[in-house]
Amino acid sequence: MAEADPVRTDTSSTKDAEALPSPPEAGAADTGSRRSRGRVLLMVLLPLALLVGGAVYWFSLQGKVSTDNAYVKQDMVSVSAEVGGRIVEVLAAEGDDVEAGQLLFRIDPEPYRLQLSEANAAIAYAQANVTTLESDSALTGVDIAAAQEDIAFARSRFERQEQLWERGFTTRADYDAAQHAVAQAEEALHQAQARQAEARARLAHGAALPGENPQIAAARVRREEAELNLRRTEVRAPGSGRVAQADRLQLGQQVLPNLPVLTLVEEGSTYVEANFKETDLADMRPGQRAEVRFDAYPDVVLRGHVASIGAGTGSEFSVLPAQNASGNWVKVTQRVPVRIALDETTQRELIAGLSTEVTVYTDEGE
After folding, report:
1. Contact residues for 338 (Cβ-Cβ < 8 A; gap 6+)
2. Which helix (H) or strand (E) holds 73?
3. Claim: this prediction has a pTM higher than 0.85
4. What is the mean pLDDT of residues 136-162?
5. What CATH number was assigned to the domain covering residues 79-108+232-259?
């Protein structure tokens, strides 16, 4: 059997075919063209969109100014006792709503009751002293009458001694003694008159308190002061509001006069203090409409109006105001507090210190 001829493969033609470049496709050219046009269009439209957006944003800011440096404020009163003592009764606690005149706490009244009793005793003593002065012999004139009688008797005796002296029937010693007795009687009269004037002065009423003795008036004033201090042992709310910072309000706590014991946040005193840049105040006027948004309540937007613009910047009213007279300073845009009154109410609790965002529409008149 003859062997089969080997199969020969022409590989050279295959390699040549692979080495030849393929003809370009028609779709690739169209894709490149579209990409080029898209890049050009993007380069044109993007700056245009930015320009239009910037213009729209700029126009949206005209006629109004905003700041997020604003906070809820409420009028607060520090309540303190006007007298010192130990707290024996507490009738209010942190967060309680109280009415004007409501009793908050009571200080031990016993020391002040004793002071009142002492003042009453002082009045009784002054009244008894006046009665004693009115019945004093110096005031009644008894001493003056007696002194006048003594003068008359001494003068009569001196006249007799003088007549005897002229006739030579008495001694020089008796004559001088009679003369000295007259002088003593006259001096006694002067002393009695002085005592009477002094007694009348102690009983005098004076122009400031007509009809009342000064001693009794002074004792009455001490009693009124004791009564006032006794009433001050009951510390009452100066107005309606909510109790806060009542940590010191504890039974047995020793209270010092005029040292705050608690803080009362007054009811209906909520407003917003917005610190605007000084460059935002050119067109701002009291009465302009405002909108207030709260960080704590994103869904709450309240209408208000500009109530007043501060009389000074925040730095002017700081504890250590800036000193720029030396010239070594950096200019910083100042903030001016603007008070925003709220024209609407909300069911949400507006707590003092909440952060807000305030927008004032300066294109509107007062």
Report:
1. 273, 274, 275, 276, 281, 284, 306, 308, 309, 310, 358, 360
2. strand 65-73
3. no
4. 78
5. 2.40.50.100
